[in-house]
Design brief:
The strands form five sheets. An eight-stranded parallel barrel has the order 6-9-10-11-13-14-17-18, surrounded by seven helices. A four-stranded mixed beta sheet has the order 2-3-1-12. It has a four-stranded mixed beta sheet with strand order 8-7-20-19. The chain is of the alpha/beta class. The mean pLDDT is about 95. The protein has 17 helices and 20 strands.
Length: about 475
Amino acid sequence: MRLSTLEVLSQAEVKQIHDATLDILAGCGVEVHNAKMLAFLKGKGLDVDENKKIVRFTRSCMEDALASIPPRFEVFDREGAPAFVLGDGNPKVAAGHNAVFWVDSETGKTRPSRVEDVARFARICEKLDCIDMIGIPVMPQDVPDPKATLLYGVAATVKNSRKPIYFSTDSYAVNRSIIDILAAGFRGDLSKQVYGISQLSPTAPLYWEGGVIDAIMDTVETGVPISILPEPNAGMSCPYTLAGLITVNNAECLSGLAMIQLLQPGAKVMYANSWTTTDMRTGDALVGSTETTICRIAAAQLARLYKTPSHTTAPNSDNHAHDEQNSWEKTFSMFCATAARHDLIVNCGMFATGMTCSDEQLVMDEEISAMSRRIGEGLRVDSETIAADVIQEVGPHGSYLMHDHTLNWIRQPKEYLMPRVSVRGAKASWDAAGAKDTHALAKEKAKKLQAEGGCPVSADRAARIEKIIAAFSA
């Protein structure tokens, strides 16, 4: 059987957070700085204070909106082939996204990111089995138009990999141009098939900026799914307590999901979170803390209550080096996100509180993700795997090495996870191979994978993408 799903909330506690959330949305409501949305919501019968820009959602409105959310949807690759389903109970993993800096593989130094870093990252992702989707890893800093930085990142990813795209911005114009880029690169029909997912976020506490609302209204019309990802910071923009942090996240997320469903019932959405806790000694926001990981588990439980595909961030670390802290924070965050059965887990390749990426981190994170996924799958128990007949046949003091049962099962890919860069074996063998640590092995693997060339997009689609970027900057 599979590993039992991780939970940190009882059903009574889930209901308590849910009820508190509905009271908040009906009481103080949320602030929405968008006249068009305010008028729309007022027309739907909601309590709208146009002077204060406050919207209050009734319990019945929320229940109706949540009931119209699709519990799952299929995602396709760049060429229009089915890639995976979100909401089927099997966690998917994405690389990225939206960092600024890059650790140079040659110098080992952190520097501003470049478009070529994104292209290389995409080529590596194309070859990594446990990377299902690509979030744009960085906003490259070497572009001619800083406002178009994310467009260059999306373009470099689409051009070099077939895997589906995950992106986020707070700009309506950038969001729209990215959707145009996806349509230009996609072999299928973007209005009917999911190739990309747009992440849009409120501002904590309980505030929606006008440009983000514009992007929501526009994106809904395109058919591109929206992941509503609040980012409350414990003790700063929400209560310091974990239950309070979760409740603010829930209120902000549900308000976004409700607006989307009011605009278009049945629109594809995701229940998401990327909260931070705060080190009150320094004021630093943390993504890799023990407490953020506890909250990740709770968020998956709430998403299941709402029967909505869920997204969280992992593997996360706040450290600036590829070291032991990086490893333990990333392993705990990814394992718990996977074992809690989040549908999409985004952030492979990032560290330093999401500010930095590296090729080596991507390769190591993919292995952490594969390990977490394998543990979650549990073990198969039946007459073939118990192998009682084989045990009796071999008997005492026998050998299984050359038995047909062993030879058959060593060829089964799901029974044992094969390491990517993990070090195994005797020290003498390790010394003979150069005594390379995991980081050095990851560096070698990243170079090998990116040299294989990814999967370039056709020239005509690449040309259309370039025209979209040029038109944006013009």
